Amino acid sequence: MSVAFDEEFCEKVEEILKSSGVTILTSKSVERFEGDGKVERVILDDGEKLEVDCAVVCVGVRPEVELAKERELKVDEKLGIWVDEYQRTSHPDVFAAGDCCQKFSFFTKAPVNVRLASVATREARIASANLFEEKVKNEGVVSTFSTCVGGRTFAVSGLTKTLAEREGIEVVESDFKTVDRHPGSLSGASEVYLKLFFEKESKRLVGGEIVGGVSAGEMINLVSLMIEKKLTAKEIVRLQFATHPLLTPSPIAYPLVNAAEKLVR
Ligand SMILES: Cc1cc2nc3c(=O)[nH]c(=O)nc-3n(C[C@H](O)[C@H](O)[C@H](O)COP(=O)(O)OP(=O)(O)OC[C@H]3O[C@@H](n4cnc5c(N)ncnc54)[C@H](O)[C@@H]3O)c2cc1C
Fold this sequence. Notes:
CATH superfamily of the largest domain: FAD/NAD-linked reductase, C-terminal dimerisation domain
Number of strands: 12
Strand order of the largest sheet: 8-9-12-11-10
Largest sheet: 5 strands, antiparallel
Helix content: 10-25%
Oligomer: single chain
Number of helices: 7
CATH class of the largest domain: Alpha Beta
Bound molecules: flavin-adenine dinucleotide
Structural class: alpha+beta
Mean pLDDT: 96
Order of helices and strands: HEEEHEEEEHEEHEEEHHH
Strand content: 15-25%
């Protein structure tokens, strides 16, 4: 989670997992697995032994570039098959899209390691539009990601505070907490907490993080759209949204608008 979210949101995930009885061990690595015909123990680097029924190993991803290498396309083992902004590889008749190819940041244009189905399908649409003539440019990955932990949605788009600091982009933040029905006592209501990040000088939206109910899954896609369209806090305040008691937060407490409004004020 810490690759995608700021610490504040990671801590919320940690709280949910701990309250469900999950033990979290950090800053430790696995030395080896032990067992007779199947895994029975995990031995950690500090000597600790964990008795287990099974082990799930999640150690990241690497692009599959063998076929491209065989055909002598330009390839970087870690970043993937080189593509230009039209998804063309180094061979004029070969396009690449998805996990196998390089991605670059929407903000800095530097390579990024964001491999998602939503990114892959977008790249495929861009590649197919460009098969016969250069028409659509890929402006880079905004990086919009959502997940669900213990029934709560965690979603992020663009730059978090941590990422902005790492890239040397000065941001100001604004947050808003509400309930995604009005009144909040309606059944199916979930608390939603949103934090937006704006570029300090231009007040353009560059990032957002949300923890909420199911509704946060689509709310982050609105954040992503606003980032890609480079909307400023003032423009977000003036956007038009539908609201309904059973479906959305109140029109006077719409998280995206109210967080932007707080910043404008
Ligand atoms: C557990 C898990 C959960 C995920 N959850 C999400 C999620 O919630 N949201 C999201 O956006 N993304 C998610 N992802 C990431 C998402 O699955 C990938 O980004 C997406 O599948 C990439 O699509 P792709 O078509 O580029 O590659 P793939 O889906 O990997 O397809 C590539 C295909 O090419 C085939 N292939 C490889 N080499 C050759 C060859 N030489 N000849 C012929 N065929 C070949 C492979 O067998 C494979 O079928 C998840 C990934 C994992 C592993």
